[in-house]
Amino acid sequence: MSPKGLPEPVAEERAHSARVAERVRSEIIESGGRLSFARYMDLVLNAPGLGYYRAPNRRFGREGDFITAPEMSPLFARCIARQVDQMLSHLGTGMLFEAGAGSGVLCADLLNGLNESGRLPERYLILEPSAALRARQRETLENVAPDQVSRVVWVDDLPPAGFTGIMIANELLDAIPAPRFKKGANQVLEACVGNRGDGFDWAYYAPQDDDIVASVKAIEAELGEPFAEGYTSELGCEREAWLRSAAQRLRRGAMLLLDYGYTRSEYYHPQRRDGTLACYYRHRVHADPFVWPGIQDISVHVDFSGLCRAAADSGLEVAGFTSQAEFLMATGLLDACRQQDPGSPDFIRLTAQIKRLTLPGEMGELVKVLALTRGMDCPLIGFSGRDYRGRI
After folding, report:
1. Phi and psi at residue 339, in whole multiples of 5°?
2. Which of 30, 109, 268, 356 has the least CB density, counted as fewest CB within 10 Å?
3. pLDDT tier, 60 (very low <50, low <70, confident <90, very high otherwise)
4. pLDDT in the model for residue 66
5. Is the pTM higher than 0.85?
6. How many CA atoms lie within 13 Å of 352's alpha carbon, on the beta-carbon side?
7. 223-246 pLDDT tens trace
8. Which residues lie below 8 Å from residue 357, measured CB to CB, with a gap of 6+?
């Protein structure tokens, strides 16, 4: 068994991880012996041809390292389709834009759902930097939604200014690199990465970026007390910057963001003293980002309060905030079961999928759904059950 009790990678995976590690090691040396954790995370996830999301042999779903809601059940996309249908109906026209489409399952199932309701978008834009993933997404569309392939356009950046429509990001923001900090006795330290033998280890320094100290102090002031010595966590500045950039392009429409995360008071709770960093390898979860770099996923939860502040600064309205379970229930998740005979194989299969999507210990409460709008004044059906905006 490999470190942390994880399954042993095959020879090809070990060789790939060694190449990624060498790239990181060289950059650490070039940077004077330390690398910010945000940069380390960016390298091992996004380095062209090497990073976890950019390598040609990325696996998905049950054969990969984790499974996302769209791959768990087509019911997920059908519920998203009902919310998007309402939004497009209110807009009268518009496109869809998805950032980080993974295997393409959400896109394919969403377009099929919108086709059934007669509310197909003018275009479905996918922002995907990986050529391998673009090919995988096209293959998925050809197999699952062949009539909709011509409607999909792959792009290299956010839409140009003046975009009208719906921007969707499902489990994207938690993969955006995040600075990590540790509270020292009398100062804020930045968590950096240094070389150690054949691997890497944490190293803590006074931040070179003054914004890290300012951000930590602002959070402490908002929470009303300083972090205890040794408290370690992450900052959401990179995710907030992404949101601001996207908001600049949105003339009229909405952003629908789904991700693992908390409100600020929950995120920086005193008991969450080791932060939210999580790594995934063959469906095992652990907290060591230095194990098998390049062949394991690394994620950091989302501070949704910070996102909402960035949205307000960008002129967007927070139109809804709730859990994935509440959102899916409000958009008709149980309708599929009502059409089946209880006890039938289809009923049992759908019930199992619904449990995975909604149970608190699964994705139901851990994943949150945030809707941000501009020029849309209508109550959104996905938040007609419980809307948690008051917690932000």
Report:
1. -90, 0
2. 30
3. low
4. 72
5. yes
6. 8
7. 999 999 999 999 999 999 999 999
8. 69, 72, 73, 75, 76, 324, 325, 328, 333, 363, 364
Report the amino acid identity of residue 207.
P
Compute CA distances 125 → 10, 208, 256, 291, 331, whole Å.
36, 37, 15, 35, 24
Most confident of 19-28, 53-62, 327-336: 19-28
Q: Is 72 helix (H, G, I), strand (E, B) or coil?
A: helix
For the chain, domains (ranges, CATH) are 3-385 (3.40.50.12710)
DSSP 145-188: -GGGGGGEEEESSSPPTTEEEEEEEES-GGGS---EEEE-SSSE
Q: Any alpha helices (H) in the chain, and if so which ranges?
A: 11-30, 37-46, 69-72, 74-91, 105-117, 131-144, 210-223, 237-249, 264-267, 304-313, 324-330, 335-338, 345-358
Confidence of residue 1 (pLDDT cuts 50, 70, 90): very low
Structure tokens at 166: 């719906």
Q: Which residues lie below 8 Å from residue 349, measured CB to CB, with a gap of 6+?
A: none
Which pLDDT value is given to residue 204?
Answer: 96
Amino acid occupying residue 134: R
| Contact (Cβ atoms closer than 8 angstroms) between residue 25 and residue 50 | no
* Token pair belonging to 53: 């999301």
What number is the average pLDDT over the span 345-366?
86
Distance CA 346, CA 362 (A): 21
Residues in the chain, overall count: 392
First-last CA distance in the chain: 43
Check the CA dihedral 27-31-33-36 and report its sign: negative
Residue 3's pLDDT band (cuts 50, 70, 90):
low
